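Re-run with default settings, no changes from the original entry. Doing this only to confirm the output is reproducible before filing.
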Amino acid sequence: MSGAGRVEGKVAIVTGAASGIGRGCARRLAAEGARIVIADKDERGGVAIADELGAPHVFRQLDVTDEAGWRRIVEETVRVFGRLDVLVNSAGVAVWGDIEQTTLAQWRFCNAVNSEGTFLGCKAAIAAMKTTGGGSIINLSSVAGLIGVPDGPAYAASKGAVRMLTKSVALHAAQRGYNIRCNSVHPSFIDTPMVEAVVSGAKDPAKMRTFVEKTSPLGRLGEVDDVAHLVVYLASDESKFITGTELPVDGGLTAR
């Protein structure tokens, strides 16, 4: 794929890249000249997007909760491509249910993938980036990491953790002169399989679709590319003076 080359030559690992926002980010980064390591537990979906993008892009299976797996994928990326410039932590899960309904097992699962997986990714990426001149870490959080969610405390807590982890990583890297930036992106309802599952699994799917669309003052769902274009910007040198910040992609939801 070819494009304007805004991230030409950069090497990026994108987690959760077999579907949804992660897949959209992988496509846009590749279109702008980056070399992508597509990372996901879903082998079939990951191979499909790798085949779509073609060489030099590759798929590597990764469970983001596995610390050894993170070390392997980063080390292989550096060995094959010579460096790691960009990490997009997009892998995530959603657990719905209020505080009285949510089990400890659900809480731990949601936080293991969303917050611990992001922590492990940041840790592994920093080890590589600081030796090759720096880079950009982009953590996918959610508007649920900015505002309360009565029917999703596990999800909101995990995404809020991502927000504060991002700021801590950004300050750590800046203070040590690593030239590594770290920012968080906070989508609201985006037209992805995850959101479609929420809609279709509701007692009244039509009513639920209307509800999720109306959460945005713009009155519609966001598109995957709305997020992916921002990720490209944060991955590029255009954003070289932006670190430790949170960027909602929410159609104005958090402006209320």
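The chain has a mean pLDDT of 96. The chain has one domain: 11-189+223-250.
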